[in-house]
């Protein structure tokens, strides 16, 4: 039985991921990583009021990279860094794969910022006088996300998006391709950050929505 189990692990590692991920999300690993759903919700939809982001439907490669970067310190957060360090590499892969396969829950309903406001302008057209391209050029139309390096912004909590832009500005997050976000974020004022965060938070995410 021991030999058979070893063969299964080597030949089909996804079986281990499928078995471990739900337990990690519900219960943690008992070695310093608490249940993921305590902050990110049972459906992976996050907690907008608290600024905890949606994980459901995000690319597995992106999620795994963020956990790895938290563990390495290139993305700083007082809660997530110790959690990421308490997860093994296989556990990080398992959790990332699990969340990537969850249906994307719709965002809470609320007012939609004006199409001619600062947030919409930065998101869709940019501000070329300060060499700031439109956010959509990397993150896709409406912020739906593009691949593993440019995650969805649509429907993420405004408080979370604001916090990330501030982290880029202050150098607490340093894991972007070619340092794009570090440079671009520093051209934004506090009012710009708030406006573009609220615009994206009001957009409907795409994906395997229920």
Q: What would your notes on this structure say?
A:
The chain is 49% helix and 0% strand. It has 210 residues and is an all-alpha fold. The chain folds into two domains: 2-100, Cytochrome c-like domain (Cytochrome Bc1 Complex, Chain D, domain 2, Orthogonal Bundle); 118-201, Cytochrome c-like domain (Cytochrome Bc1 Complex, Chain D, domain 2). Helix 1 packs across helix 2 and helix 7 packs across helix 11.
Write down the overall geometry: globular
CATH superfamily of the largest domain: Cytochrome c-like domain
DSSP E strands, number? 0
**In terms of per-residue confidence, which ranges show pLDDT below 50 for 5 or more consecutive residues?**
1-19
In the residues, how many domains can be counted? 2
In terms of DSSP E residues, the strand content is: under 5%
Straight-line distance between termini: 40 Å
If you consult CATH, what is the topology of the largest domain? Cytochrome Bc1 Complex, Chain D, domain 2
Report the CATH architecture of the largest domain.
Answer: Orthogonal Bundle
Which class of the largest domain in CATH terms?
Answer: Mainly Alpha
Protein name: C-type cytochrome
Keywords: Heme, Iron, Metal-binding, Signal
InterPro entries: Cyt_c-like_dom (IPR009056), Cyt_c-like_dom_sf (IPR036909), Cytochrome_c4-like (IPR024167), Cytochrome_c_Oxidase_Subunit (IPR050597)
Organism: Fulvimonas yonginensis
What is the gist of this entry?
With 210 residues, the protein is mainly α.
Layout: helices, strands, pairs:
Blueprint: H1 2-11, H2 13-27, H3 37-40, H4 60-72, H5 80-86, H6 89-100, H7 118-124, H8 136-139, H9 158-170, H10 180-185, H11 190-201
Helix pairs in contact: 1-2, 2-6, 4-5, 4-6, 7-11, 9-11
